[in-house]
Amino acid sequence: MQNRLLLGHPQLAITIGRLCQQLIENHQNFGNTVLLGLQPRGIFLAERVKERLESFTGTDINLGYLDATFFRDDFRRRDSPVRANATKIDFLIEGKKVILIDDVFYTGRSVKAALDAMTAFGRPEKVELLALVVRNYAKHVPIFPDYIGKKVNTLDNQKVLVEWKNEGEKVDEDNVWLINKEG
Q1: Where's the Phosphoribosyltransferase domain (predicted)?
Q2: 11-46 pLDDT, tens per residue?
Q3: pLDDT tens for residues 88-102?
Q4: What is the 3-state secondary structure (H, E, C) of the chain?
């Protein structure tokens, strides 16, 4: 099997725009709503969502980066030490509506860890989850995104790779690929 392009330009831009329109329908002025991009890869999508929402609404929207490395249930099961990413949340989430944003939703374990990590910043009024790509048939915990860009059927020997052009990768356009792992 060959690698398959799931979303290329302009489909990816249209998908992000659609997700933003759904957020606007549910949050209108975003006065009590904040965005949290999950480290490491969800922050690139979160930045694009924030930029697009602000251009649609004319409102400043708080965006933070949340790392849940030390809250994962597999943290101590790894052979080598894990490197944490930066958490950057310079606002309180107490009483706020929080939209967690990640690029790929797989088993749900990262989101579970993020929910645990988030409590250090207050108790939100409500938490919603936005995922660009959802891998079907792989859920390990009873968590599912509220906003979904694309659902895709995958096998265990495949992964979803999201390439962002400004992430330091040497790509000219944003793309989402279904990659067949070696072996």
Answers
A1: 7-160
A2: 999 999 999 999 999 998 899 999 999 999 999 999
A3: 999 999 999 999 999
A4: CCCEEEECCCHHHHHHHHHHHHHHHHHCCCCCEEEEEECCCHHHHHHHHHHHHHHHHCCCCEEEEECCHHHCCCHHHCCCCCCCCCCECCCCCCCCEEEEEEEEECCCHHHHHHHHHHHHHCCCCEEEEEEEEEEECCCCCCCCCCEEEEEEECCCCEEEEEECCCCCCCCCCCEEEEEECCC
Please, what are the domains in the chain?
13-74+83-153 (3.40.50.2020)
How far, in Å, CA of 45 to CA of 164, rounded?
9
Number of residues written out for the chain: 183
The 10 Å CB-count burial string (b at 16+, else e) for 77-105 is eeeeeeeeeebebeeebeebbbbbbbbbb
Strands 158-163 vs 175-180: parallel, antiparallel or unpaired: antiparallel
Cα distance between residue 170 and residue 157, in whole Å: 25
